[in-house]
Amino acid sequence: MIDSAALGARLTSVRDRIAAAASRAGRDPASVHLVAVSKTYSPDFVRAAAHFGQIDFGENKVQEGLSKQEATGDVPLRWHLIGHLQSNKARKAVGFSVIHSIDDAGLLRKVDEAAQLAGKTVDVLIQVDLAGEPTKHGARPEDLPPILEAANRCQSARLTGLMLLPPAVQDPDAVRPYFAKLRNIRERCLGEVARPAMLTELSMGMSHDFEVAVEEGATLVRVGSAIFGSRPPRTP
Ligand SMILES: *Cc1c(COP(=O)(O)O)cnc(C)c1O
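Above: query sequence and pyridoxal-5'-phosphate SMILES. Below: predicted holo structure tokens.
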């Protein structure tokens, strides 16, 4: 059984902390949207959070996300794909409203084609890799121009911003420079190829560091365990 009241209390606490962080930074709290990361949690957890007014949900695997969408299809929700996307899954990925993990121009074109075929539009963000870790996906900052140019030619995929998955460090303040750097990269891209509407969103911040991310300009924070409780390990 889900302790729905406890989940609601955690959700409220995360919302309050986002609003407080925004106020500290002189930002409008309404400019920050919370994506509840429901990966590994059953559809009942999604329903419980939706009951407390949560609309945006994030999943890092295409198939798991689509199954959960189907299981909660009677509730109007917005689904975000936040995990790595292989280009052979582009067609399925356009079942999400927002894809945060575009990291190459070819993948973007595939998503655009798939969205056109499906007769829908999908919002996309470019995942940026600032640490150069071999295990991480994402485009290096120097690889952004060709992706931005491809975005200019898309019909059904609408570029809305940049996403960051920083190195996993425990101290949130150690991540602050990465958040600030993503914001600076956005400014630089705006001065070059990108139209302003292409880069309004900064998707950054997770359970342990979302307040710092909001202070540094996040407009989408992806928070899982602080809402749903610590995650059960995946069965392989
Ligand atoms: C799991 C995940 C999150 C949320 O992580 P929590 O620590 O549970 O808040 C955010 N972003 C991505 C890309 C994830 O895979």
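The first helix runs from residue 4 to 24.
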